[in-house]
Amino acid sequence: SDNFFVAADLNLYYDRQHEQWYKRPDWFAVVGISPLYQGRESRYSYVVWDEKVVPLLVVELLSEGTEDEDQGRTSSRPKGPPTKWEVYEKILQIPYYVIFSRQTSQVQFFKLTAGSYVKQPSSTKSLWLPEVQLGLRRWKGKYDGLKRQWLRWHDVDGHWLPTLAERAETERQRAETERQRAVQAEQQALSERQRAVQAEQQALLEQERAAHAEQQAVLERQQAVQAKQETWLERQQARFERERAVQAEQQVLSERQRATQAEQQVLLERQQVLLERQRAQQLAAKLRALGIDPDQL
């Protein structure tokens, strides 16, 4: 968060009258302060009188050299700096103080009550900080390459806050999921494009088929027109042939009529000749009857 500063093994300067005096908590947290000094650069120390905000929580990890001081069993030297406990409890009045033993995994929770630290019952599993709506309790797992008991933050529902490694893994999984979604979306888009291309090809094929069918229909219509024209020509040719036949037949009939007329003329002429002969014979007979020799005439 931009208003939540945590530090480990960082000098904590607490007394403006003694600017060289400091404590170096194993871990502490400050609420309402940016992680960056003056919002620009990393912090190399924490000066309370400059920031005007005391830490909300301090955690000390027990060790043989500092165990007594961490648990408040030491006293300050005359005119010397106060003890760690005195600084946390009396001078800075840090609301929460936690002592954790990495050797035994035992944890001690202290709350500042009426100006003094009150140790919480040993049955207390978690130290709840309402100011930040977070709790701190022991957690067994692997962190920083070591599998052991650790102190870890949790929310109001008891869910652990993810570590940087877990956040990185979650982010990696999220990125992988997004990548897979992107790949799937790209594959989906490619599939859609392929379907669109197939649909376009199918449409073109249908258009070609329709054009071919239209061409076939035009060809068939042209063939039908040609067939009609050929039929009409054949009919005209047949009609012409019939007319020629009629004309030929009429010509033959005319020739026959002329031949009949000629034959009748010949018959008529023959009848005329016969009639003339008959008349001549009758005349000759009359002449002979009169005693005239027609041959002498």
Radius of gyration: 69 Å
- Shape field: rod-shaped
Helix share bin = 40-55%
Low-confidence stretches: none
Q: Treating each run of at least 4 consecutive H or I residues as one helix, how many helices?
A: 4
CATH topology of the domain at 4-161: tt1808, chain A
CATH architecture descriptor of the domain at 4-161: Alpha-Beta Complex
Q: How many DSSP E strands? A: 14
How does the major sheet shape up? 6 strands, mixed
What strand line-up does the widest sheet have? 1-4-8-9-10-11
| H-E order | EEEEEEEHEHHEEEEEEH
Rounded to the nearest angstrom, the distance between the terminal CA atoms is 179 Å
Class computed from helices, strands and strand pairing = alpha+beta
Mean pLDDT: 92
Q: What CATH first level of the domain at 4-161 would be assigned?
A: Alpha Beta
> How much of the residues is beta strand, in percent?
15-25%
Describe this entry's structure for a reader:
- The chain has 297 residues and is of the alpha+beta class.
- The protein has a domain at 4-161: tt1808, chain A (Alpha-Beta Complex).
- 48% of the residues lie in helices and 21% in strands.
- It has helices at residues 48-51, 67-70, 84-91, 164-289, and strands at residues 4-7, 12-13, 22-23, 27-31, 36-37, 41-42, 46-47, 57-61, 96-100, 107-113, 116-119, 126-129, 134-143, 146-154.
- Strands 1-4-8-9-10-11 form a six-stranded mixed β-sheet. A three-stranded mixed β-sheet has the order 3-2-7.
- A hairpin with an 8-residue loop joins strand 2 and strand 3 (22-23).
- The longest helix has 126 residues, at 164-289.
- It is rod-shaped and about 225 Å long.
- The model has no long low-confidence stretch (mean pLDDT 92).
